[in-house]
């Protein structure tokens, strides 16, 4: 029995909670770290109580919500997106369905470079307007943290513009946004046959944009149609000297050993990883680098090589799941669909898929100490769902049962029942 009455800003009662937290047995195989007939108290933007209603005792709050047995999860985290861009690539969708492949289109100046042209031509306001519906559609699915990459500017102004739009979207909607610098995404045409010069420039721009507080992490595309390991290492050395974490588009179309490289830089994540080798998995395990699965890109490219899920499980690699929202390989703004596809196409369990968009996605962004699980002292980033069990989030296709989303304790969205 508690003697003092607990006072919260928000108190959610009569709820079930998929905490995804070791504090509630997640690691010890309590499915979803679940609490039934629970309550959640929020104070000063943090989780101040989580437990059963019996444990709560007498409590009061400025706002009390009877969840009527709905489920709370950590607010979802989309840890890999390119959602800020100009233009549209449905023409390439048609070309692919007429028999041309993604790499062929890229070599002919389409692909990433066609989005670069459209993005460079867009003003910052236009880019914001174009990106807004994509951003909002993630929010409407309970996503409280979104990583947004640059990579369609490929010059200082263009990369800056994209990162500024990313920042503004987060600020305007109270969503936590992580900004990732991806100038090594493709070689812009003005640097054709001068790749090393471009890499030097990209390293210089990184220093400038870091000084402007526009960079939280550094990414690159390591692939035969993009940059090799030496070029990526050069950029990662600069990132390291600035104290910035790194991540990598690795092993999407071939095994370049990029996942092993990013692990050796103590990188946050290796993303795509369909062609991931066991050698690289061993390096990822050693450095606790997260494997980010992007099933919508796999689906769009009609890839047939599956990421080595069983071997990753065997080595204890944490797996995240993300939309990869981009105009080429993943024109999707549904993280719930990505969870479904991670289960159906890659064989993840619904519990692994939810871990992939919560606790493991937070680690892919270096946010594991504040986000991605429901536990005392964590940021009060939670989503409320009108579902029977957490597996419904992965099971249902094209259905969205979100009832509310709080980020740092603030209601970003709440549909009163
Ligand atoms: O994650 N692989 C590289 N980058 C994106 C595709 C970008 C594009 O086609 O515009 C991806 O798949
Ligand atoms: Fe990507």
UniProtKB/TrEMBL annotation:
Keywords: Cytoplasm, Histidine metabolism, Hydrolase, Iron, Metal-binding, Zinc. Its main location: cytoplasm. The keyword Cytoplasm applies. Binds 1 zinc or iron ion per subunit. N-formimidoyl-L-glutamate binds at residues 152, 326, 328. InterPro entries: Amidohydro-rel (IPR006680), HutI (IPR005920), Metal-dep_hydrolase_composite (IPR011059), Metal_Hydrolase (IPR032466). It catalyses: 4-imidazolone-5-propanoate + H2O = N-formimidoyl-L-glutamate. GO terms for biological process: L-histidine catabolic process to glutamate and formamide; L-histidine catabolic process to glutamate and formate. GO terms for cellular component: cytoplasm. Belongs to the metallo-dependent hydrolases superfamily. HutI family. This is Imidazolonepropionase. It comes from Moraxella nonliquefaciens. The lineage of its organism: Bacteria, Pseudomonadati, Pseudomonadota, Gammaproteobacteria, Moraxellales.
């Amino acid at each position: 029995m508690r003697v003092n009455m607990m006072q919260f800003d928000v108190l959610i009662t009569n709820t079930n909670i998929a905490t995804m937290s070791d504090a509630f047995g997640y690691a010890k195989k309590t499915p979803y770290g679940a609490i039934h007939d629970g309550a959640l108290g929020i104070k000063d933007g943090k989780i101040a109580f989580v437990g059963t209603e019996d444990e709560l005792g007498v409590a009061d709050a400025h706002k009390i919500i009877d969840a009527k047995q709905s489920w709370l999860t950590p607010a979802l985290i989309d840890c890999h997106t390119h959602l800020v861009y100009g233009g549209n690539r449905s023409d390439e969708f048609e070309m692919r369905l007429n028999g041309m492949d993604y790499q062929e289109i890229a070599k002919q100046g389409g692909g990433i470079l066609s989005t670069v042209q459209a993005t460079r031509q867009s003003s910052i306001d236009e880019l914001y307007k174009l990106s807004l519906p994509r951003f909002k559609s993630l929010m409407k699915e309970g996503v409280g943290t979104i990583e947004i990459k640059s990579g369609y500017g490929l010059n200082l102004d263009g990369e800056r513009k994209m990162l500024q739009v990313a920042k503004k979207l987060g600020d305007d909607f109270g969503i936590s946004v992580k900004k990732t610098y991806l100038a090594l995404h493709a070689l812009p045409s003005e640097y054709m046959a001068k790749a090393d010069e471009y890499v030097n420039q990209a390293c210089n721009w990184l220093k400038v944009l870091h000084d402007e507080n526009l960079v939280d992490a550094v990414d690159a595309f390591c692939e035969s149609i993009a940059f090799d390991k030496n070029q990526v290492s050069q950029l990662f050395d600069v990132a390291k000297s600035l104290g910035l974490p790194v991540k990598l588009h690795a092993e999407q179309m071939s095994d370049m050993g990029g996942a092993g490289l990013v692990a050796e830089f103590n990188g946050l994540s290796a993303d795509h990883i369909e062609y991931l080798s066991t050698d690289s998995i061993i390096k990822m395990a050693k450095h606790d680098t997260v494997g980010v699965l992007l099933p919508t890109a796999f689906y769009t490219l009609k890839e047939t090589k599956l990421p080595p899920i069983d071997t990753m499980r065997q080595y204890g690699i944490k797996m995240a799941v993300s939309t990869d929202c981009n105009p080429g390989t993943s024109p999707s703004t549904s993280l719930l669909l990505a969870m479904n596809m991670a289960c159906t196409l890659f064989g993840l369990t619904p519990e692994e898929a939810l871990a992939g968009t919560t606790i493991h996605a937070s680690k892919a962004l270096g946010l594991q100490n504040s986000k991605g699980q429901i536990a005392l002292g964590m940021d009060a980033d939670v989503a409320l769902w009108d579902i029977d069990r957490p597996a419904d989030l992965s099971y249902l296709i094209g259905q969205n049962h979100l009832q509310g989303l709080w980020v740092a304790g603030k209601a970003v969205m709440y549909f009163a029942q």
